[in-house]
Write a structure and sequence with these properties.
- The chain is α+β, with helices and mostly antiparallel strands.
- The protein folds into 2 domains: 114 residues, D-amino Acid Aminotransferase, Chain A, domain 1 (2-Layer Sandwich); 157 residues, Alpha-Beta Barrel (D-amino Acid Aminotransferase, Chain A, domain 2).
- Helices cover 30% and strands 28% of the residues.
- The chain contains 8 helices and 15 strands.
- A hairpin with a 2-residue loop joins strand 3 and strand 4.
- The longest helix has 15 residues.
- The two termini are 26 Å apart.
- The relative contact order is 0.14.
- The mean pLDDT is 97.
- Bound molecules: 4'-deoxy-4'-aminopyridoxal-5'-phosphate (PMP).
C-alpha cells in the first residue's frame, strides 16, 4: 500500500482527501497536531505523542476525545500503508461551524491524518553539521501547545533557507535562546548539556525528553536553564533535537563558528545512543 490519508474514519489517497471550508482549523488555526515517525515498521514513542496531544487539546478547551480511538486510527493507518519508515501527520481541529470566533456552538472535531514514506535527507548534514541564524521570537505566548498556528515558524524557516542556513533559532529581545522552528536546542559546555526549561515559550519535545533520559543513563549532566546567545556562540557544541531532525549538530550560527566548526563528540555520541534506543 502506498501513502494514504485518513479523514474521520475513512481512508483514501492523499490527493482525494478534502476538508470542509468551514473547518475551524482552516479558518482560525483552531487545531492541534502531532508528527509521529516509524523505524523498521515500529512507531517510535507513540504513547508520548498521544499524551502530548491530549494535553494540547485540554489546554485549548477541546471536549474530551478518546485517546484509544486516536491510537486505533493511527495503528490502522500505519498497518494499511505498510511502510517501514514512515511519517504520520495527525491533525485534530475543533470542528466545522459557521465562522464565529467563539466556539461554544461547535460540535464534532475533525480528525485527519496522512502517512508518507520518509527519505533520509539529513545524513550528510548530520556528518558535516548545519548552519543556523537567530531571529527574535515573535510567536505567541503558548508555544507549549502544539497548534497548527505555525506562520512565524514558516517565515523563520524560509528566512533561514534564504540566508543559506538550515534553520532559524528563536531568541528573546534580551537574548535568551528558546528553540528552533521545529526542534529544541541544546548547547554543550565542558561536557555539560544546557537546554531551555519547560515553560509556555517552548514545546516539550519528545526527542528532548529522550535525550535527557539518555544523558541520565550515561551520567552526562543536563541543566534545564536559561542561557544567552553569547553562551551559545561560545559553547563547545550545539545541536537540535526533533522527531524528524533526530540529533542534528549545528556548527555555524550567525557569524560565529561553534567550537572548532566540526561536529563534536557529545552530539555524535547522543545521536548514536538515540539510534540505539530506536533500534531497541
Ligand atoms: N519545537 C518545535 C517548535 C517543534 O515544532 C518541534 C517538532 N514537533 C519540536 C520542538 C521537537 O519536538 P519533538 O521532539 O516532539 O518532535
Amino acid at each position: 500500500m502506498p501513502e494514504l490519508a485518513y479523514i474521520n474514519g475513512q481512508f483514501c489517497s492523499i490527493e482525494q482527501a478534502m476538508v470542509p471550508l468551514e473547518d475551524r482549523g482552516y479558518q482560525f488555526g483552531d487545531a492541534v497536531y502531532e508528527v509521529i515517525v516509524s523505524y523498521n515498521g515500529c512507531l517510535f514513542c507513540l504513547e508520548e505523542h498521544l499524551i502530548r496531544l491530549e494535553r494540547s487539546m485540554q489546554e485549548l478547551l477541546f471536549p474530551p476525545i478518546s485517546l484509544e480511538m486516536i491510537r486505533n486510527a493511527i495503528c490502522d493507518l500505519f498497518d494499511r500503508a505498510n511502510l517501514a519508515r514512515a511519517e504520520i501527520y495527525l491533525q485534530i481541529s475543533r470542528g466545522v461551524a459557521p465562522r464565529k470566533h467563539a466556539f461554544m456552538n461547535t460540535k464534532d472535531f475533525q480528525f485527519v491524518m496522512t502517512i508518507r514514506r520518509i527519505e533520509e535527507k539529513l545524513t550528510t548534514l548530520r556528518e558535516k553539521g548545519a548552519a543556523a541564524i537567530t531571529l527574535e521570537d515573535f510567536r505567541w505566548g503558548r508555544c507549549d501547545i502544539k497548534t497548527v498556528q505555525l506562520l512565524p515558524n514558516v517565515l523563520a524557516k524560509q528566512k533561514a533557507l534564504d540566508a543559506g542556513a538550515f534553520d532559524a533559532i528563536f531568541v528573546t529581545k534580551e537574548g535568551v535562546v528558546r528553540e528552533a522552528t521545529s526542534s529544541n536546542i541544546f548547547i554543550v559546555i565542558d561536557g555539560r548539556l544546557i537546554t531551555h526549561p519547560l515553560t509556555p515559550n517552548i514545546l516539550s519535545g519528545i526527542t528532548r525528553l529522550v535525550i535527557i533520559d539518555i544523558c541520565k543513563d550515561l551520567s552526562i549532566p543536563v541543566e534545564e536553564q536559561f542561557y544567552s546567545t553569547d553562551d551559545m556562540y561560545l559553547s563547545n557544541e550545539v545541536f537540535l533535537t526533533g522527531t524528524t531532525t533526530e540529533v542534528l549538530p549545528v556548527v555555524h550560527i550567525d557569524k560565529n563558528r561553534i567550537g572548532d566548526g566540526k561536529v563534536g563528540p557529545v552530539s555524535k555520541k547522543l545521536y548514536q545512543e538515540l539510534r540505539g534506543r530506536i533500534e531497541g
